[in-house]
Task: structure prediction
Amino acid sequence: MTAQNCILLGVPLDCGKRRKGCLMGPDAYRTAGLAEALRDLGHTVTDQGNVTPAPFTETDHPKVVQLHENIAWTDRLADASEAALKDGLPIFMGGDHALSLGTVLGAMRHAEAVDRPLFVLWLDAHTDFHTPKTTDSGNLHGTPLGYVTGRADFDGFPAVPNPLPHEHIALIGLRSVDAAERDAMQGSAMTYVDMREIDENGIARPLAAFLEKVAAANGMLHVSLDVDFLDPSVAPAVGTTVPGGATVREGHLVMEMLHDSGLMTSLDLVELNPFLDERGRTASLMVDLTASAFGRHVFDRPTRAF
Result:
């Protein structure tokens, strides 16, 4: 990957679930030195500040948490994502995973405008393939992939006229999938890789196969990195901890392979809850992983003391 014009956008979105704290994520990334790490690698970095939601009026919903605020964020983030992609490589500093309802939609719009296919790499413990109707929790951070692939029951959200094809999606790191999501995904053309497959065959092989598919199609690649992709022993600052996640080394390998491919065109950093962190260790790790995706080599990594 050559030098990039990196556009940082803070997304203090905290309405995709009930447990609060992700609204502090953007400032944690700034404090942990994300911009400085990217500049040290030779990239141009512009921090455009924090995105704000479109105007909304919240009303009680019998099931869904803060429905109208989520719609307002999706509307505004789709516009912000589409605009930023015209100028560089946007990095969305979240914020919970509901932000991807908007960021992926904006990437889809931009890809269609430039006549290239969009692919999505979902690094997460969960599939996030629910709809507002199928979610038991009512938390919309579990619905982005359901939304962008055109599943029903997203009433009030911006339209998705050309849904993302299932074969353009890879989910890696899965280890907590609800029954409703599993049933909906049966027979799907998505690439989905759980931790057993990673344990047996490694993480590089399925990722390499997916990246080859993206390259062959001259595709754009949106990457969504959830803190809970990582094992909570190394990344505790997340409200959806699932034991048995990716190691630090596996995380860096994924990001190094993304850098080597030169395919990534936009990036989400989601679900960081600084209120749950230990002296900033998770924020620092997420910054280090991002740096690996932008060219930091194994010999260049800083020593961390916590």
Observations:
- The mean pLDDT is 96.
- The first strand starts at residue 5 and ends at 11.
- The longest helix spans residues 67-85.
- The chain is about 35% helix and 15% strand.
